[in-house]
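Researcher: Here's the sequence for the chain we discussed earlier.
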Amino acid sequence: MLASVLLVLLSLVRVVTGADDVTSSGTVSAALRLAVPIFLAGLGGLWSERSGIINIGLEGMMILGTWTGAWAGYQWGPWIGVLAGIVGGALGGLLHAVATVSFGVDHIVSGVAINILGLGLTQFLAGLIFNTGEAKALGGGPRQSPPVEPIGTLTFPVLSGGEVFGWKSPDALGSLERHHWFLVSDVAGILRGLTTGMSLLTLLALLLIPLSFFVLWRTAFGLRIRSCGEDPYAAESLGVHVYRMKYAAVTISGALSGLGGAFLVTVASPVYQDGQTGGRGFIGLAAMIFGNWRPGGMATGSLLFGYTDAMNVRGGGEAVHALLLFVTVILVAVAVWQFLRGNRMRPQVVTDLDRRQIRNAYLGGALAVLAAAGLFVWFMAAETVPGELVSFTPHLTTLLVLALASQRLRMPAANGQLYRRGEAS
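Model: Thanks. This is the structure I predict for it:
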């Protein structure tokens, strides 16, 4: 229901502003491509933190995945590169597990160390291997690998064109999109973006979201992992091998982050480059928090970040300018909801806690009104958004989403706590 309302609102904004890139198939395709490495990192964080281990080393594990994926990919093909990226990230996860589970190192300290190690190690190995011999002759250098053959793509016939046994099918969705009709063309553009030129690795990555939900919430193995994140001593009393579960979860976490890194060098840009991850591991961590440590919410947050990044790549200042109006309307809706929430929280007997909650609701509504007014004035006074702000949009979105989502979050109860077998009080 909410998604339908937002789609109608986005379509109205497109019609009013004329910014067709807001819902174009190219933007949607770019958003999905940009979101995949983010939600793979976020999915890795989800596995780790559901077992009680905070993992801010996702960025370093992703970096390890980019280097190992490129190293194996240019020699033996992209799918071997994907496997190597998974292994590289898993080794980073295993190192984090050894430090935090076996030696009791602070989770934040260990994660920061892995980020530093991943960056430094890959820079050293790139200069040592990619800048010599055959790798250098193929186009490698101290800051990049030789080109990696890209993974194949899939286009659905009839819906988005493509060929079936040599017959070139019509592009039905493309025809609808080009008419720029209200809502109809927007739906067609979104569907076309999801069914045109989709990488096979993207399809595999998308399947990992329901698979992770099934394993963590519908299997005994997943129940044991989540019990370790909620109360490891209670899990221990029921016969769960807590150390083993934590090791498995954190290693899987690293493998998923490494897969995100391999995606960057086999799909997004078929070459390893220094600094290629661009903080996606940290944004994936933010997406996981936004999603309240659940796969569906995490995927939604990742798509949001990928979409704002796609606005930077595809639409530029004009598309981001149109989003100002979209966000203005959303903020007005948030303000109305906060004021109504404050009115509903007026019990007959008012305690100090009730007063604070009511005050916070009204304060949140007032701030939303002020922000909406400021954005609307900006939208009316300018015709585009400066390029500097356009490039900062994904990071600003990360900050805003975390600020708005912070009131409804519930992390696993034992997340980040030190566990020692047999020390239950």
